[in-house]
Amino acid sequence: MKKIAFVFPGQGSQAVGMGKELAEKHSEVMDYFKRADEKLNTQLSKLIFEGPKEELTITYNTQPALLTTSIAILEYFQKSGIKADFVAGHSLGEYTALVAAGTFTFEEGVYAVRKRGEFMERAVPNGEGSMAAVLGLDRAPLSNVTSEISDAGFPVSLANLNCPGQIVISGSKKGVELAAVKAKEAGAKRVLPLDVSGPFHSVLMKPAAVQLREVLDEIEMRDARIPIVVNVSAEPISSASVIKDKLIEQLYSPVQWEDSVRKMIDLGVDTFIEVGSGKVLSGLIKKIDKTVSTYSVSDEESAQAVIDALKEERL
Questions:
Q1: What would the pLDDT profile of 95-143 be if each residue is shown by its tens digit?
Q2: Whether residue 315 has pLDDT greater than 70
């Protein structure tokens, strides 16, 4: 019997029009977009379906937009009867995974990530922090580079350990610039600046983490019905209290995505289904382990293709 993990994308996967076709054809899908509008007292669904793109990519809009889209698509997909043995999400996607696992209600999840996005936007003045993708350098030498730069007074650290040869660094603008130069000297093939509004998953996000704890303390989180492999430790967790602590840490700690995927494979997962906009995580998972099956569900056609493929594999 196959072991399945549902995985949920984070910022960067958003696209104007995501989920629109499915929502227009299925009322149970559209209902999630309406519930998000009501909870946030805003026309989030209009922004998701029609844009403009510039407004959708603002962090405090992107986060609830992606969570809403993924959960709405999941609602449709789960009618197939396909269930997950584990869930995980990349950064913001971890909150989507927690809604899927029952730790948050949908409304609690949408509210939490809206506030999370606001806190992240405000934590560092615009232009003072940045992020960059480092390609072709292992984590150990890159960690040495960031430690050296940070020790010199320019905070920078590993932020997203996505897959072999792809690591994102984050921190002060000067710290990222200096680390980029040193990384190339250490053997990195390329360093690509990212178009983001802040230094996410770095120590500079600690003020946002303090505010986020206050919001999460207001929510009565429940133990996860499906184990969630969390970003901070790459370990499966079900306890609500532990999950809360990990969500706080996640804001200023690296996303251990490669290790999370490897942990799920070690636990027997052989099939990963990415639910939501885009195929970023499916691509990363294939770079981590080519032997596992990866699928992406973003609309009716892709959902049916996955259902058919899994039925065939199980015959």
A1: 999 999 999 999 999 999 999 999 999 999 888 999 999 999 999 999 9
A2: no
**Catalytic annotation on 26?**
no
Give percent helix, percent strand, percent coil of the chain, each to the nearest 5.
55, 15, 30
Q: Out of 13, 70, 91, 172, pick the active-site residue.
A: 91
Q: Is residue 124 helix, strand or coil?
A: coil
Alpha carbons 23 and 32: distance in angstroms, whole number: 9
pLDDT digits (tens, 9 = 90+) for 274-312: 999 999 999 999 999 999 999 999 999 999 999 999 987
Of these residues, 201, 202, 260, 302, which one is catalytic? 201
Question: What is the distance between the alpha carbons of residues 47 and 130, in angstroms, rounded to a whole number?
Answer: 26
- Which pair of structure tokens corresponds to residue 21? 């076709």
Q: Rounded to an integer, what distance in angstroms lies between the CA atom of residue 134 and that of residue 176?
A: 11
Other Cβ atoms less than 10 A from the Cβ of 298: the count is 24
Instruction: Report the alpha-carbon distance of residue 129 to residue 115 in Å, rounded.
Output: 20
Would you call the peptide bond into 141 cis, given omega within 30 degrees of 0 as the criterion?
no
- Based on the residue annotation, tell me whether 241 is a catalytic residue of this protein: no
- Count helices and strands in the chain by DSSP H and E runs: 14, 10
Cα dihedral angle (116, 285, 23, 58), rounded to 10 degrees?
Answer: 30
